[in-house]
Fold each of these.
Amino acid sequence: MKNTEVNIKSEAELIRQIKNGEDEAILDLCFLYKPLINKVKNLYHVRYYDSQDWEQDAMIICHASAISFDLNKGKFGSYFKTRLINHARSLVRYDNAYRRQALKQSVSLETAKKNNLLPLDKSFVSIPEIPLSENIAILTGRLSHLETNALLIGLGVIEQKEVIQKLKISKLTLSRARSRLVQKMRQTLLN
C-alpha cells in the first residue's frame, strides 16, 4: 500500500512540475504509464506507425493531458488512458478512410461490361498504392504516362507489344522513355 501512495504522490508531483513548465518531468510521467502505452500500441494497428511514432504521440498526449488535468478531480491514469485510446482510434479511422478511397473509385465488372468499359485499360494499370518509401512515391509522381508504361514493362506487369499497339508508338520512342525512366530513377532514388 505504501508503494501505491508513493506512485500517486510522485504522479501528482510530476503533473505539477509539467504544469510549471518543467518539461523534463514528462519523461518520468510517461515511464509510469509505459505499460498502458504499450497496451494501446499493441491493440491498435496503424499503417506506417512504428514504436517511435507511438511513443512520441503518447508523450505529446501525456503532456497535453497533464497540462489540462485538474488534480482535484478523478485520476490522471484514466484521463490519460481515455485521451490516448481516443487518439489511437482517430488514427485508425483516418487510416481506414485512406484505404477506402480505392473502393470509392472502383467500378464493378458488371457495370463495366454494361457500359462497355475496359477496367484494366492502359490508364487503370498503376503502380501499387503503397510505396516502399517516400522516394518511390516521389518517383512515380514524376513519371509521364509513357514512362510509367515503360516501368510496368520492366516489372513484367504488361507486355511491350501491348504498349506499342495501344499507344501507337515506335520501339525507339519506348526505348527513349526507358532511358528517361532510368535517369529519373537515379535522380530520385540515389540522391
Note: The chain is about 70% helix and 0% strand.
Amino acid sequence: MIKTILKSTAIAIAGIFTLQCTPQMNTDTARAEENAASAKHQLNKIVLEEMTRGHRRMITITSSEKIIEINGVSKDSKTSAAEWETLVKLAQKQDLDKIDSYESPTTKRYHDGAMMANLKITANGNTYTSQGFDSGTPPAQFSDLYFAVAGHFPLK
C-alpha cells in the first residue's frame, strides 16, 4: 500500500515538473526563432521614392529618424520605437532577394497617370530595390510594407 502511494506521488511530481518545463522550452524556442528572424533581416533603412514630371517626394526611415522630402523641401522627425518595430516586422516577412522581381499590377505611370514609385530596403549591409510601380498600387507581395511607409506622406 505504501509502495503504491509512493509510486503515485513520484509519478505526479514527475508530471508536474514536465508540465512546468515544457512552456519554458517553447518560450526559449520561440525566442530563438525570433532572434534568427531578426538576424535574417537586420533592417537599417527604408526609402520610398515617388516621382513624375515636375514632382518628387521621398521618405527615408531609419530606427532613429525619418526624413520626408517633397520637391526638395525636407522635414526631419524622430521615428518612434513602435513605428520602427512595425516596419521591422513587415520587412521580415519579405524575401528581399526577390523584391526586384515583383511586377507592378498597373501601368498608369507610363503616361503620367500616376507617380512612378520604388522601394529600397537596406538590410544586412545590402540594398534591395523594387522595380518601378504606380504610386498607391504596389505589388501585392510588399503592399503592407509600402502602405506603412507611404502613410508618412502628407496628404497634399
Note: Residues 113 and 148 are 23 Å apart (CA to CA).
Amino acid sequence: MSKTTTEKLQDAALARFAVQGFDATTMNEIAADVGIKKPSVYAHFRNKDELFLSLIPKIVEDELNHARQVLQGGEGIKQQLRAYLEGMQERFEQSHQVRFWIRILFAPPVHLYDVVMEPMHVFMADLERITHQAVAQSALAKPETGLSVETLAKTYMALIDSLQSELLFGGVHRYRRRLESVWLVFDKAVFGSAQL
C-alpha cells in the first residue's frame, strides 16, 4: 500500500527535524523532499508547527510499544533492563524517529514547549508504569532485595533520562562511558544483593 501525501510529508519532516532540528528546517525543504511545491503542503498542514505536532502521537505509541516488547519481566529482567539502555544508541543512530524523539524530549521548539511537553510527561509516566510492571513480575520484587519495586522503577527511569541526554548532547562515546558506569552501580546495587 503506497503512502499518502500526508504520510510522505510526515516522513520527510521527521527526517529533517531529526537531523537539522525544527528551526533549521523549512517547509520548502520538506516539500522538495516529497516532490511537491510548497503551497501544496498547506493542503495537508496549516503550518510547520502543525506538521511537527502531528508526528508526536505515533512516535509516543511506537516508543511505548518498543518498551513493552523489551521490558516484559520474568527471569530475564536483568538482560531486558540492560538491552533497553543499550538499544538507545543503535536506535538513535539508525532511526530518524528515535533521533527526533530524543531531541524533542530534551530540546523542543521553545514556542511549542508546553504543547510538546504535555504528551512527553504522559509518555514518561507510561514508560515508568511499563518498567514498574516488568520489575514487579520478576524476582526483583522479592523483599530480600531491600529495594521496593517503585524505587527500582524510578531509579531506572533516572538512568534512561541520563543516558538519553548524554547521547543527544555528549555523543556516542560519552554515552557508552556513562552507560558502563551507571550500569556497573545499578547491577551491583540491584542484582548483587538479589542473587538472581
Note: The radius of gyration is 19 Å.
Amino acid sequence: MPTAQTPVTAEPAQSPEIPPERRTEETPGREGPMGKVVHLHTAHPRVPIPYLTPGDMFTGAREAAPRLPSMRKLTYYGILGGMAVAGVLEWPVAVAIAAATEVITREQGAQSRAGQAAESRPQPGAGPSVRTEGARPQAATG
C-alpha cells in the first residue's frame, strides 16, 4: 500500500544578522520584500565605439584599392590555390610556386623601374649645357 509523502521544505540558511545601525545599501544580506537582497557591483569600462558613415567606408575602400593585387594576380593565385585544394598540387609545392612567382615579379619590377630612372637622367657629356656654352672664350674676329 503506497504511503503519502509529505513535502520536505528546506530551512533557509541562517546568516548572522547585521545590526540595523550598520545596514547600508551596499551591505549584502539586507532584507527586502522577496527575502535577502544581494547587490553586485559590476565594472562598466568606457569603450569608444567608432561611428562609421558610408562616406568613411568609400574613402577607406579608395585608399585600400591601390594596395590590392591586380586581377591577373588574384586569378593566378586563386587557380594555384584551387589546384592545391583539389589535390593536383601538394600545398607546399603551391606555396613555393606562389612565393617564387612573387619574388621574380618584384625583381623584374625593380629592374624595370631602375631602367626607366636611368633613361630619364641626363647623361654627362651628352650635350652642351648652358653653363659650358657661356664659359667658352669668344674667338676674336679681326
Note: The CA atoms of residues 40 and 132 lie 89 Å apart.
